[in-house]
Design goal:
mainly alpha, Leucine-rich Repeat Variant, 0% strand
């Protein structure tokens, strides 16, 4: 009972204005580990952005795969910092997050597609190459940029071939990322 109360108090501390208090609470929740996973998953729906951000970060640190689904859902959060921390948390989940992230690359929300692309780039799983190549023609620049960066981070011949096409572009961010990747060995 006491451990559950401690977890609840630490999660409550994530809403403090003082960043050091939030950082310390996150560190302690990470040390608690598996016992804190379910309450942290519940906290992803908190009305407080700091609680959602901190919960996502700690869930990524703990790495329990049962948090993948709730983290995927959190990628549609209204707050860009919550989405960014959630994408990072999913990146730390490793290859277990690859398939769920690939599935949301077709989400109607460009912010979700983009966050998923960036997370996949950090995971570096070659299963994401074909779905990411499809995003190179996305209507949104953030999504195209994320897909370009992800492909350059994953690497491989197929990704390189796709990046060669992007590098022929018109000076956009994605063209620069592709060119930098292709010229990095020079």
């Amino acid at each position: 009972m006491e451990k559950r109360e401690n977890v609840a108090r630490l999660i409550e501390s994530l809403q403090e204005e003082d960043e050091m208090v939030r950082v310390q609470a996150m560190e302690l929740l990470g040390e608690i580990g598996d016992f804190a996973v379910d309450p942290l998953i519940d906290a992803l729906s908190s009305p407080n952005k700091y609680v959602r951000r901190g919960s996502a970060k700690v869930l990524g640190d703990i790495g329990d795969s049962k948090a993948i689904g709730p983290l995927i859902d959190t990628l549609s959060d209204d707050n860009k910092w919550v989405r960014r921390d959630t994408s990072s948390a999913l990146s730390r989940m490793g290859t277990e997050a690859t398939e769920p992230l690939i599935k949301i690359l077709s989400d109607e929300d460009w912010k979700v597609r983009g966050a998923a692309a960036w997370a996949l780039g950090n995971i570096k799983d070659s299963r994401a190459i074909d779905p990411l190549i499809k995003l190179l023609n996305d209507e949104n620049g953030f999504v195209r940029g994320g897909a370009t960066w992800a492909l350059s981070n994953i690497g491989g011949e197929k990704a390189q071939d796709a990046l060669k096409e992007v590098a022929k572009g018109n000076g956009s961010f994605t063209q620069k990322v592709a060119s930098n990747y292709l010229n990095k060995d020079d």
